[in-house]
């Protein structure tokens, strides 16, 4: 049943069955409001009688809260500006650290600085083709060149050996992955953590026969799968103490032949679909390695018939 309560001009309609337990509080509020209205009317009547204006009420709570809120908003904006500046400085510091480590590794390894730069550029492009966001791709472009930083800890007699490595020498060479990860991990900085992941995983193989952890398929981090592919491609096309540069057709035959074995087959498909982009990166950034000649032009029939020769990459 609904009832109506009227007190000093205030009206309250309520369902008694639903609000029976709240009557005392509701009546108290209603009566208080009625008293307040009556007091305002009394003051206005008295003011009119004296012909004096009603004094303005003191600043209400809402005005005070608005002032406090405006102050907090201004402080937050200043904090956000400082945070953006600090992040920019941190990013610059990480980039400088990455570049110094790259320079140090270039002094120890036979691979040129241009090779590591190309690996970074190619890794970024392949990451975008694989659907990664631009932020991750940009971070990978900075982290990928440190994939072989662990070679700092490999003796020259093994690192620069012109001939094949013995099994014992291979065991030593393989430690460059864990050495590199050990150098880079533990900083708490996202960029260096990504670089550590790349250093540790770029010699894992899709079929689980890689090193150092014999990870298989999707268990290999995407960063490691991407760098594994572009690193091998650029290395095949480059001169090394233990090999001559390969023609493009032979390098591509090797890449396609290793899809599903060494490399993520989906990444190989994306790579081959846009092979002209990766060749263009090499063309833009060639160093003293052998120049691409006419025999390295895209010859798909030759590529299809070329023999795939497993090549251990150091």
Automatic annotation (TrEMBL):
SMART domains: HDc (SM00471). Residues 90-287 form the HD-GYP domain. Keywords: Membrane, Transmembrane, Transmembrane helix. Pfam families: HD_5. The keyword tRNA-binding does not apply. The chain crosses the membrane at residues 20-41. This is Two-component system response regulator. It comes from Nitrospirillum viridazoti CBAmc.
